[in-house]
Amino acid sequence: MSPAVHAAIVLATGEDPAFHAGDAVRVLTRSPVGHYRVPTYLRGKRGTVEAIIEPPWMDNEEEGFGRNAGSKRHYYRLAIPMTEIWSDYVGSPRDGIHIEVFETWLEKEAR
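^ that's the sequence the OP posted. Answer follows.
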């Protein structure tokens, strides 16, 4: 009897991370009405991906309106320098915040 042949696991669209640790990203600037999860003071700000949060998860914004249909994407832990948030910040250039942001709110940033 021949050994069983196993099909390769195929991830659904979006289940592969779009970003990786070390990637430069920008938080999108958009103003959705209703259920959104990104602080307004971080919109348009640049940062660096520190980690991919596993496992991928549903889009909470879409789920809040019953429009998710089971698709999943990743959250990413970002490091955002304080000088990016406040242009006149006078503390250490190493100061920053760390926050987890959902994939649909991020775009790659050229450095």
